C-alpha cells in the first residue's frame, strides 16, 4: 500500500493534479467527494483517500507489533517510528496542495523535497519492520535481497529521466519510483541481513565479507536515493544534472552488483546462525 501510495503521489504531481481541488484540503473543490470521473480533481482526491487508508494500516502494523507475540524491540521501534512521523507527512502533504490556501506558496520545491524524503523514510521503516519481524535471516535471503536490489535499480534505469529510453511522462515517472523503491527495499534488506550475518556468521560468510557487502549496499543506496530525488523537479534539470543523474544511477547499479557478486558461492544454512564450516 505504501509503495503504491508513493507512485500515486508522483503521478498526481506529474500530471499537475496536486493543484486540483481548487487547492483545498481536506475538501476538494468545496466537496467531500468530487465527481468520480478521471480528471485532476479525482486523481488528487483518490491519492488522498489511498493515503488515508494506508495511514490507518501503518498504525495497525505498529499496534500489531506491540500486541502480537514474539516481535523484537527493533521491530516495534521501526513500526512505531513510522507512525510517529506519519503526522509530519500528512502536514507536508497538506501544505503542498494549498497554494494560496491554508499556506500561501505551499507548492514549492522545498515542500516537495520534504514530502518525498519523509515518505521514503516511512517506507524504509516499514521495510525494516517487515524484515526484522520475519525472523532470522540466512545466506539465501541475503543473496535474494541483493538480487532484488540489482533487478530493481536496473529496471528503474529503463524509466529514469537520466536514460532517454522512454519519454519521462507521468506513467513513466510512477513506474520509475515503483522499480526504484523495489531496488531500495532490496538494499535495505541486504544491509539488514549483512549486519545480522556479521554478528551470527552465516555459513560461508565471515564478518569481513558481510561488512563489505553492507558497505557496498549502503553506497548503492545513497546513490539511488540521489536518483530518486533527481527524478522530481527539485532542480532545473539541465544537461549537467542529467549527467550527474546518470553517474549516480551507474554507481548505484555497480555497487549493488558488487554486493551481489561478493555473495557468490555463499552456502545456505537452515537457521542462518551456524558458524563457518557448519560446526
TrEMBL record:
Localization (cell): Membrane
Alphabetical keyword list: Cell membrane, Disulfide bond, Heme biosynthesis, Iron, Membrane, Metal-binding, Oxidoreductase, Transmembrane, Transmembrane helix
Tagged with keyword Transmembrane: yes
GO MF annotations, alphabetized: metal ion binding; oxidoreductase activity
InterPro entries, sorted: COX15/CtaA_fam, COX15/CtaA_HemeA_synthase
CC terms in the record's Gene Ontology section: membrane
Keyword Transmembrane annotated: yes
Pfam families for this protein: COX15-CtaA
UniProt pathway: Porphyrin-containing compound metabolism
Swiss-Prot/TrEMBL GO biological process terms: heme A biosynthetic process
TM regions (residue ranges): 46-67, 79-102, 114-134, 141-162, 174-194, 215-232, 244-263
Name of the protein this chain belongs to: Cytochrome oxidase assembly
Provenance organism: Halorubrum hochstenium ATCC 700873
Amino acid at each position: 500500500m505504501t509503495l503504491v501510495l508513493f507512485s500515486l503521489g508522483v503521478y498526481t504531481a506529474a500530471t499537475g493534479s496536486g493543484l486540483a481541488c481548487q487547492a483545498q484540503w481536506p475538501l476538494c473543490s468545496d466537496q467531500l467527494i468530487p465527481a468520480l470521473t478521471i480528471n485532476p480533481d479525482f486523481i488528487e482526491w483518490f491519492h488522498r483517500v489511498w493515503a488515508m487508508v494506508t495511514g490507518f494500516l501503518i498504525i495497525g502494523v505498529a499496534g500489531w507489533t506491540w500486541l502480537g507475540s514474539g516481535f523484537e524491540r527493533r521491530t516495534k521501534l521501526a513500526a512505531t517510528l513510522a507512525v510517529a512521523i506519519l503526522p509530519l507527512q500528512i502536514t507536508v502533504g497538506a501544505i503542498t496542495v494549498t497554494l494560496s490556501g491554508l499556506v500561501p506558496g505551499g507548492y514549492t520545491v522545498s515542500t516537495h523535497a520534504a514530502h518525498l524524503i519523509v515518505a521514503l523514510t516511512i517506507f524504509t521503516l516499514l521495510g525494516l519492520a517487515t524484515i526484522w519481524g520475519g525472523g532470522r535471516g540466512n545466506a539465501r535471503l541475503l543473496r535474494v535481497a541483493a538480487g532484488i536490489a540489482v533487478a530493481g535499480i536496473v529496471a528503474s534505469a529503463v524509466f529514469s529521466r537520466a536514460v532517454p529510453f522512454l519519454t519521462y511522462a507521468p506513467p513513466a515517472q510512477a513506474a520509475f519510483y515503483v522499480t526504484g523503491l523495489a531496488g531500495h527495499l532490496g538494499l535495505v534488506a541486504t544491509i539488514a541481513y549483512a549486519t545480522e550475518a556479521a554478528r551470527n556468521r552465516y555459513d560461508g560468510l565471515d564478518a569481513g565479507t558481510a561488512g563489505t557487502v553492507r558497505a557496498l549496499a549502503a553506497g548503492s543506496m545513497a546513490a539511488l536515493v540521489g536518483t530518486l530525488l533527481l527524478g522530481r523537479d527539485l532542480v532545473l534539470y539541465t544537461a549537467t544534472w542529467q549527467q550527474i543523474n546518470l553517474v549516480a544511477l551507474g554507481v548505484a547499479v555497480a555497487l549493488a552488483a558488487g554486493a551481489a557478486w561478493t555473495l557468490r558461492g555463499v552456502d545456505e544454512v537452515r537457521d542462518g546462525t551456524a558458524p563457518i564450516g557448519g560446526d
